[in-house]
Design a protein that fits this description.
82% of the residues lie in helices and 0% in strands. The chain is globular, with a radius of gyration of 21 Å. The relative contact order is 0.15. The chain is built from 19 helices and no strands. The protein has helices at residues 4-26, 32-38, 43-71, 73-93, 97-125, 131-156, 163-184, 190-195, 199-231, 243-261, 264-269, 271-277, 282-306, 312-334, 341-356, 359-370, 373-404, 407-428, 437-443. Helix 13 (282-306) runs parallel beside helix 15 (341-356). The chain has a single domain (4-186, 232-443), classed as Growth Hormone, Chain: A.
C-alpha cells in the first residue's frame, strides 16, 4: 500500500525550493522604480540588475547536474537553502548597485540549482501514474512564490524609502524554514542511492514511499535500468549532441527555450510597469500584478488536474494557441494612441492562464522524463541552463525594446515565438503520460 502521507511530505519539502524560486524571481517587481531611483540607474542599468539574477541561474543550472550525480540530490538542496538566506539578506542590505547585483547573482545560482534538482528529485521518487502531477507541484510552488512576492510588495510599498529592502529580504524568512525541513525530515533519492550501490537505504525509502508492493514491482525494473547504464561507458559532454541521445537532448532543450522566449518572465518581472504604461497608478499596478500572480497560481492547479489525464502534448498545444491570441491582442492594444487598461489586464490574465496551464509546469515534466538516468544530470543541467540564458536575454532586452520600439513590438516578438513553439510541439514532442521512466527510455531508443 502506498504511503501517500510520506510521499506527499517529501514532495512538499522539495517544492519549497520552487517557492523560493518564485519569491526571488518576482520579488523585485515592486521594487524596480525605487532601486532605479536609489542608485540612479538607466533603463539598461535596471534591466541589468534584474536580469543578472538569471546569469546566476544559468551558472547554477549548468553545474548542478554533475554535482547532484556525485553528492546526491539532498545535499544540493541543502546548499541552495543556505544560499537563499545569505543572498536575500545581502540584497536587502546592499549599499550599492554593484553589491545588489552580486547578491542577485548569488540568489540566481540557488534558483538555477533548484530548477534542475527539484524536478529531477520528484520524478525519481514518484510512481508513474502520479509523476506528471507531482513534478508539476514544483511549478505550483513557483506560482505561490510569485503570488506571495506580489502580495508582500503591495503590503510593503508604503513603508518609506527603504521598503524595497524589506521586499528583497522576504525570501530569507522562507529560506530558514526550507533549510529546517531539509535537515530534519528529508530523504535522498532512492534511484541515486541504488546507482551508488546503497541498496539497503534505497529499499527502505521505497518501502516508506510505496510499501512492499511498490518495492516488489518497481525495484527490479529500476535496478535493471541502472545496471544497464552502469555497464555503459561514462557519459561525456559530446555524447549529449550525437545520435539518438542528441536528438532527445535537442527536443528537451528547445522546449526549455520556448518556455522562456515566449515572454513570461518579462511579463512577471515588469508587470507593474506594463500596467503603468497602460495608465494605472503605482499602487493600482501593484494590485493588478497581484491579480496576475493569483491567476498564475489558480491555473497551475488546472494543469495539476490535467497533466496526467489529458497528457503533456495536448496541454502544450492549447497553451500555445491561447498565449498567441492574448499576445496578438496586446500588440494591437499598445499600437494605438490610447490604451484600454481593462483590456490589457484581461489579455495579460489570459496569457498567464494559458502559460500556467501548459508550458510552465509541462516543460519541467518533460525534461525530467525523457532523459535516461545515465545522462539525466548533465542533460537537465544543459537544458535548464539554456532556459536561463533565454530568460536572461528576455529580461535584459525587454525594457530596452519597450523604451526604444514600444510595448507593441515586445508583445509581437513574444507572439512570433509562441507560434513557432506551437509548430515545434506539434511535430517533435512525444507523449509520456502514464509511462515509467524506463518505458520512456525504451520508446525513445536510448
Amino acid at each position: 500500500m502506498t504511503n501517500n502521507k510520506y510521499l506527499y511530505w517529501i514532495v512538499f519539502v522539495a517544492i519549497n525550493g520552487g517557492l523560493m524560486f518564485g519569491l526571488n524571481m518576482a520579488g523585485i517587481a515592486g521594487a524596480n522604480d525605487m532601486i532605479k531611483s536609489e542608485f540612479s540607474l538607466s533603463d539598461s542599468g535596471l534591466g541589468t540588475v534584474a536580469a543578472l539574477l538569471t546569469i546566476g541561474c544559468l551558472i547554477g543550472a549548468l553545474f548542478t547536474g554533475g554535482i547532484t550525480e556525485k553528492y546526491g540530490r539532498k545535499k544540493v538542496m541543502t546548499v541552495t537553502a543556505v544560499l537563499y538566506i545569505i543572498s536575500a539578506l545581502g540584497c536587502a542590505l546592499a549599499p550599492s548597485a554593484m553589491l545588489l547585483t552580486a547578491f542577485r547573482v548569488l540568489s540566481g545560482i540557488a534558483v538555477g540549482a533548484t530548477s534542475v534538482v527539484a524536478p529531477m528529485y520528484i520524478s525519481e521518487i514518484s510512481p508513474a501514474k502520479d509523476r506528471g502531477r507531482l513534478v508539476s507541484l514544483n511549478q505550483f510552488a513557483i506560482t505561490i512564490g510569485i503570488l506571495l512576492a506580489y502580495v508582500f510588495d503591495y503590503l510593503l510599498v508604503d513603508l518609506g524609502d527603504n521598503s524595497w529592502r524589506y521586499m528583497l529580504a522576504v525570501p530569507a524568512v522562507f529560506g530558514v524554514f526550507y533549510l529546517i525541513f531539509l535537515l530534519t525530515s528529508f530523504c535522498e533519492s532512492p534511484r541515486w542511492l541504488l546507482a551508488k550501490g546503497r541498496r539497503e537505504e534505497a529499499v527502505a525509502i521505497l518501502q516508506r514511499i510505496g510499501g512492499e508492493t511498490f518495492v516488489k514491482e518497481d525495484l527490479p525494473e529500476i535496478e535493471r535500468s541502472i545496471n544497464a547504464e552502469n555497464a555503459k561507458d561514462k557519459v561525456s559532454i559530446g555524447e549529449l549532441f550525437r545520435g539518438k541521445t542528441g536528438k532527445v537532448v535537442l527536443i528537451g532543450t528547445l522546449i526549455a527555450a520556448f518556455q522562456q522566449i515566449t515572454g513570461v518572465n518579462a511579463v512577471i518581472m515588469f508587470a507593474p510597469d506594463i500596467f503603468q504604461a497602460a495608465g494605472s497608478m503605482k499602487e493600482d499596478s501593484l494590485f493588478q500584478s497581484m491579480i496576475v500572480g493569483l491567476i498564475n497560481f489558480l491555473m497551475t492547479i488546472v494543469a495539476l488536474r490535467l497533466v496526467d489525464s489529458k497528457g503533456r502534448k495536448t496541454l502544450l498545444l492549447w497553451g500555445a494557441v491561447g498565449m498567441t491570441i492574448a499576445l496578438a491582442y496586446l500588440t494591437y492594444e499598445f499600437s494605438g494612441t490610447s490604451t484600454n487598461n481593462t483590456g490589457v489586464l484581461v489579455a495579460l490574465l489570459v496569457y498567464i492562464s494559458f502559460f500556467a496551464a501548459s508550458f510552465a509546469p509541462v516543460m519541467w515534466v518533460i525534461i525530467s522524463e525523457i532523459y535516461p538516468n545515465r545522462i539525466k544530470g548533465l542533460a537537465m543541467s544543459f537544458s535548464t541552463a539554456i532556459t536561463w540564458l533565454c530568460t536572461f536575454l528576455t529580461i535584459q532586452f525587454a525594457p530596452i525594446i519597450k523604451s526604444s520600439l514600444g510595448l507593441e513590438w515586445l508583445f509581437a516578438i513574444f507572439g512570433g515565438f509562441t507560434v513557432l513553439a506551437f509548430i515545434f510541439v506539434k511535430i517533435w514532442i512525444p507523449e509520456t503520460k502514464g509511462k515509467s521512466l524506463e518505458q520512456i527510455e525504451k520508446e525513445l531508443g536510448l
